[in-house]
Amino acid sequence: MTVVVTPLSGSEKLRLREVFASVQDSRSLSGYIRTYGFVRFSSPCSHMEILLDKVEGNANVHRWSEQTQLEKGDSLAVGYMPELSGYTRISVTQNNLQELKETWDQWGNETKQLFYGNYGDLPYLLDVQVDEHLFQALVLFWNPAYSCFTFREVDLVPTVEEYTTLLCCPRFQVDRIYSRAANVPTFWKKLMAITGMSEQWITARIKEKGECKCISWDALKGLILTHPDETKKVDVFALSLYGLMVFPRALGYVDEATTDLFHRLSKRVTSVPVILAETFRSLGTCRKAGAGKFISCAQLLLAWFYSHFRLIDRVICRVFFEDYSPLKDIVASTRRVDVPEENWIALL
């Protein structure tokens, strides 16, 4: 089956609206529009029939999961009581991404399209403001035992499918998950392959930060601005996004572990499971300890959160358009408001 784009006709839009209204009235559609509304199919049968089959099929899965939960209960031991502190103070200190954003804004459409084709919609995350009050409130609702957010009687967790949809990277193959290879090239060899620079240039700029080797953003920024190879310039910019925003382990630097993951992206592996694993690990560690630093992509987690708490009636039909980007739409429709942490806690 090939993924293509086919805009809906007027009659199809009307039928789709009627079906959504009908399923929503029966309370079996909740949570599934966003997951499958972004997918576009082409096959001998119409894309409308496949979409409706997906909606109906996921409604059945939803009913089955609820019934199984009622019959078999939780997977945790009877009497399990989580040992959690009453309050968690988490640090979401971020790299200053302003220079990355300014560089992106200066690029022409051709260079940006080259980036989108290779690395997806990551640059839209540069426009996501990290609301520390909201983030601090969210952490209090993270349940390490189940690895999910629990809002009263509702459990919510980012999935591989949701993050893959948001990042919208054509290179990702969902069945090719990143894992560290047994024989990994040295740090400088990976940087040589990514940047196209000489061994002498690379080794002169490698630094030690704690127990890991890194390369500074200043060194990479100079390459982005002056590199004669357009493709390599895009590659270095993408590496900087991964090191400074997706995995901000050392402020101002891109570490060796991030470089290893990025180097494997050329093999069409997906980085989404690693991003989710780091997110869950970091949230769980901070929640259990009662404090800590969040080391994953705060912007992507907040974009996912916003996607579940906004009106979607205006984007039902746009999702079938060729240039539709869910992450771009979320960023454009989200307005940051200065809400105190205690108000977010009460709301959630």
TrEMBL record:
Residues 109-309 form the DUF7745 domain. PANTHER family: AMINOTRANSFERASE-LIKE PLANT MOBILE DOMAIN-CONTAINING PROTEIN, PROTEIN, PUTATIVE-RELATED. This is DUF7745 domain-containing protein. It comes from Gossypium anomalum.
